[in-house]
């Protein structure tokens, strides 16, 4: 009896080999055909056929030569940057920042504009995306995906915004409007979740499949990474730690009335500034959220710089943060907690060590607590990474036969 032939197997192998070669070129830079063959375990003939196939698809290009011994120089190949572009957008209450990256991950365009006093969120995003693409020298039609980081809830089923406390004009139905306007795939993701994506890629959580990121900024938020994947919850509310009922703060009974929730009252920027002021580290008043977060971070940095004199500020802040961290960790038991956001970053290791000690003192779990490894625009970086992962899957080809 003859063996059963598996339909599509050669196609599947070609797809797997093509994808492996493209990933190698992204990771290691320009390579010769021979070197691609060595690294993938393919024969010289198969590697040459692979490179020719990728050239025909417009995914790789010759970028130079490598001098060898006898005979002609070997051609060097690299992923063609302009084969696709993505745009990441960080949307805040006061400003929107958009960056355009080519398929290699290189950021080739960036713009920033105000989001205040506008009744047209579609127009705001449209202008940011178009300007980012234009600054990169890319046609809008070449942008294969736009990922927006936004505060609030994103429905896991529909992908639409269901609640954004700081962006009252951002509402359900906005996703469809943006997709129609830009004529390209648009994805919303919670901003703190995107910060965790960036942290896993190139920050303090590299190589850690399970961790939580606690965002301490104007507000407080949480991202949960389990098995290397974000956990959103059934309604997208996983990580809305500001609403955690904690001792020491009144608990509002109706969140729709825009009252500050309990943990937010205890550990948000206003509370941090109040704690610092009580111990002599006062800052100028701040009304806007972005300014409030900066003022709070400024006070925390002053406390860290003051050494022992600033200890009481860090002790109190750690005690408050530990209530939220402990509540999360006693349920999830992650090995790592990353403190991020303006305040989390400003506290550095002095704050992280105190939070770690306090959590261990009040629970049975003992996660390692560290400060973020990223100093600039983690939300934007996470948005670009999320967009790139999806577009590379599309452009480089599926691994199914």
TrEMBL record:
Residue intervals of the HTH marR-type domain: 21-70
UniProt-listed CDD domains: ASKHA_ATPase_ROK
Pfam families given in the database record: MarR_2, ROK
InterPro entries assigned: ATPase_NBD, HTH_MarR-typ, ROK, WH-like_DNA-bd_sf, WH_DNA-bd_sf
SUPFAM superfamilies: Actin-like ATPase domain (SSF53067), Winged helix' DNA-binding domain (SSF46785)
Keywords: Kinase, Transferase
Record-level Gene Ontology MF annotations: DNA-binding transcription factor activity; kinase activity
Family: Belongs to the ROK (NagC/XylR) family.
PANTHER family in the record: BIFUNCTIONAL UDP-N-ACETYLGLUCOSAMINE 2-EPIMERASE_N-ACETYLMANNOSAMINE KINASE, ROK (REPRESSOR, ORF, KINASE) FAMILY
Name assigned to this protein: Sugar kinase of the NBD/HSP70 family, may contain an N-terminal HTH domain
């Amino acid at each position: 009896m003859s063996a059963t032939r598996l339909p599509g197997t050669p196609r599947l192998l070609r797809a797997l080999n093509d994808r492996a070669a493209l990933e190698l070129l992204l990771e290691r830079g320009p390579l010769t055909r021979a070197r691609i063959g060595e690294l993938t375990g393919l024969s010289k003939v198969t590697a040459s056929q692979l490179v020719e196939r990728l050239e025909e698809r417009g995914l790789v290009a010759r970028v130079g030569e490598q001098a060898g011994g006898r005979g002609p120089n070997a051609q060097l190949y690299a992923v063609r940057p302009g084969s696709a572009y993505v745009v990441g957008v960080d949307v805040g209450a006061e400003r929107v920042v958009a960056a355009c990256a080519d398929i290699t991950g290189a950021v080739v365009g960036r713009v920033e504009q105000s989001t205040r006093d506008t009744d047209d969120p579609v127009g705001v995003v449209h202008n940011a995306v178009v300007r980012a693409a234009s600054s990169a020298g890319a046609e809008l039609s070449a942008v294969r995906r736009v990922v927006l980081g936004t505060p609030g809830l994103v429905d896991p089923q529909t992908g639409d915004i269901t609640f954004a406390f700081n962006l009252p004009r951002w509402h359900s139905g906005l996703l469809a409007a943006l997709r129609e306007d830009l004529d390209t795939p648009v994805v919303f993701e919670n901003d703190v979740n995107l910060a965790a994506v960036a942290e896993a890629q190139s920050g303090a959580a590299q190589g850690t499949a399970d961790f939580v990121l606690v965002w301490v900024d104007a507000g407080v938020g949480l991202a949960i990474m389990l098995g290397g994947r974000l956990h959103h919850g059934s309604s997208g509310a996983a990580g809305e730690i500001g609403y955690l009922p904690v001792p020491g703060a009144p608990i509002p009974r109706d969140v729709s009335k825009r009252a500050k929730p309990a943990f937010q009252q205890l550990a948000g920027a206003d509370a941090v500034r109040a704690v610092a002021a009580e111990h002599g580290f006062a800052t100028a008043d701040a009304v806007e959220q972005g300014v409030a977060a900066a003022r709070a971070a400024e006070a925390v940095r002053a406390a860290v710089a003051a050494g022992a004199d600033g200890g009481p500020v860090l002790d109190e802040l750690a005690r408050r943060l530990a209530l939220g961290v402990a509540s999360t960790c006693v349920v999830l038991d992650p090995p790592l907690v990353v403190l991020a956001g303006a305040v989390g970053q400003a506290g550095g290791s002095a704050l992280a060590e105190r939070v770690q000690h306090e959590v261990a003192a009040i629970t049975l779990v003992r996660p390692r607590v560290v400060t973020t490894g990223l100093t600039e625009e983690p939300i934007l970086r996470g948005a670009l990474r999320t967009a790139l992962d999806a577009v590379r899957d599309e452009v480089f080809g599926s691994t199914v036969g």
